[in-house]
Amino acid sequence: MVSVQHTILTVKDWIIMNIEQKQFAPNAPIPSLYEISRTLDISQDNVEQAIRELITEQILTEKFQEGYCVKPEPAFFYPVDELRSITKMIEEVGCTAGTIIISQDPEVPSRDDKKILNITDDQLITVVERIRTADGLPVAYCLDKINQPDFDYLHLNDKLSLLQILQDNPGFKVAYATCEIEAISYEPYISNALECAPEESLLLFKQVHYNEDDRPVLFSMNYFKSNQMKFQIKREMK
Fold first, then answer.
1. SS (H, E, C) 15-39
2. Which residue ranges does the record assign to the HTH gntR-type domain (predicted)?
3. CA-based Rg of the chain, rounded to a whole angstrom?
4. How would you write the chain as a 3-class SS string?
5. Cα–Cα nearest to 125, from 139, 114, 137, 140
6. Which of 177, 181, 180 is nearest to 202 (CA)?
7. How many CB atoms lie within 10 A of CB 50?
């Protein structure tokens, strides 16, 4: 008699094989429990268990009123353990990077901004709000706080990459950055800017960039659609 565990593995392998052979397309529903059960001669209970495991493993997803669907691979890869601009991330997958500038203003830093950017006086900072696009479609909402009151990104945006602009600016060349990643539920203003559906979550990538003198020069908050991004970091045993 074939074990239940083996039958579940058979179903999983069959579904994965069909995904790899492009018989089941991303975001498209897979066959029903009944159809898979008849095709493989395996009980619907075991088919359902196999599908539940594939959902847990992020190979399938369940959509309201559509059933079980193939989860698409994230479009963009962003290694956490190296400094890489969003421009480079977009271009590496063959897309054209673009920028929609919403605003650029000198602002009085908040208490939190002063702490993060190590500001002790009444110095203003430059705050740039923008949308990064790939082939014209929104990819990231960026709120950048630059430790300089008269930083003019508007007239330098042909370079697109704020990180590259800083690298070319004496005293602002970035040597390293600290970062935090936080999961965010639907946030009306940002989610609308990124054209998210109500059920789509966001990933907030917060970075503080330091120059070669350990001075914080840029505090950036980048919001990405969670289903578009894949992050990776190398961790070593100490």
1. HHHHHHCCCCCECCECCCHHHHHHH
2. 11-70
3. 23
4. CCCHHHHHHHHHHHHHHHHHCCCCCECCECCCHHHHHHHHCCCHHHHHHHHHHHHHCCCEEEECCCEEEECCCCCEEEECCCCCCHHHHHHCCCCCEEEEEEEEEEECCCHHHHHHHCCCCCCCEEEEEEEEEECCEEEEEEEEEECCCCCCCCCCHHHCCHHHHHHCCCCCCEEEEEEEEEEECCCHHHHHHCCCCCCCCEEEEEEEEEECCCCEEEEEEEEEEHHHEEEECCCCCC
5. 114
6. 181
7. 24
Q: Distance between CA atoms of 132 and 194, rounded to whole angstroms?
A: 9
Q: Which domains does the chain possess?
A: 4-70 (1.10.10.10), 76-232 (3.40.1410.10)
Length of the chain: 238
Q: Exposure of 219 by Cβ count < 10 A (0-12 exposed, 13-18 middle, 19+ buried)?
A: buried
